[in-house]
Amino acid sequence: MSREIKxxxxxYTEGEIAHEHRVQQNGHEAAILWFTGLSGAGxxxxxxxxxxxxxxxxxxxxxxxxxxxxxxxxxxxxxxxxDRTENIxxxxxxxxxxxxxxxxxxxxxxxxxxxxxxxxxDITPEGKFIEVYTKCSLEECERRDxxxxxxxxxxxxxPQFTGISAPYEAPENPELVVETDKNDLAACVQQVVxxxxxxxxVKTD
Amino acid sequence: MSREIKxxxxxYTEGEIAHEHRVQQNGHEAAILWFTGLSGAGxxxxxxxxxxxxxxxxxxxxxxxxxxxxxxxxxxxxxxxxDRTENIxxxxxxxxxxxxxxxxxxxxxxxxxxxxxxxxxDITPEGKFIEVYTKCSLEECERRDxxxxxxxxxxxxxPQFTGISAPYEAPENPELVVETDKNDLAACVQQVVxxxxxxxxVKTD
Lengths: 205, 205
Description:
The structure is a homodimer. By secondary structure, the first copy, chain A, is an alpha/beta fold. Chain A has a single domain (25-198), classed as 3-Layer(aba) Sandwich (Rossmann fold), CATH 3.40.50.300. Chain A has helices spanning 19-26, 43-56, 66-73, 81-100, 114-123, 138-144, 149-155, 185-198; strands at 4-6, 11-13, 31-36, 61-65, 104-108, 129-135, 176-179. Chains A and B meet through strand 2, helix 2, strand 4, helix 3 and helix 4 of A and strand 2, helix 2, strand 4, helix 3 and helix 4 of B.
């Protein structure tokens, strides 16, 4: 099908680049690492530390989180159940594109509903969606309260707050459970990276 | 600010990865190549051929087009003026994320409205948005009619068709004008790649 063309000083082939060629170029498999858990459980911290560890060994990575999604792609969405669902749907679609591009895409969102996470999993090629339940007791999350959100949720200033006034549906069968209230960050990062190595997604070196 | 951590067999740093480190890793600058033009002008063909040429020299690239956007992220959108605007807004946001990840992101959409393209440009860091006017006369596009869409538009089967029953607003000051009805594909690809080399986005080799 493909036709190799040589111009003055460029060469190209007609048609699309096969995903396997992107994987070969990068030297690792592409995947989605979907971190889910309560506010304050450590999703972003863990995702950033995992990304750093992967990046240091030459992987192509990117994090989708509230900072780059809520003020950009999803700035038209609020926190109603419908908007939360659409929020996660779009994040799932973008993560899939990033993954298709050869990237290990990490997403760090509470993503409280099982059905919404399943939606993201269902559009992703088999075996490429790795759900990382970032587990931490509500008590510990509320004690940490890094952004002061639990305090505002308890006072009623923030309505529909996950864990307080809105449900969090824990994963029933996640690929990984990382307990951030029982292990330190380094151990949690190690657990995720070890999993990726065992699965052959990144190289053991 | 950053703290280097060494665990058993991983190292990581707390915090985010700087964009410049992604650029260093890839060996080229990140950018958005925004192809705009009439249906049949050759946007997808040109974008694919440019991507192949860049990929062959080791660049990290990805194309956003109707195939991976209209049936995924934007499957809730139709072809009303409002939906076309939202379509391009989301594509601009995703291209920006891809660019932020270090990728040369190519987009291949008619994107007929100046204001919508300006919206995508405005959210992109200065100098990273390269508008490629894929120029081809309506007569030639209609003669090619690769998907039979012009025929359907003329018969009224497709309403609001750009160039026939809906406007196309040509770029006023694009970074590049590539004339696909005057030059062959190899020459058009060469023109785009030469521009990226001159701008220092990709290496001259």
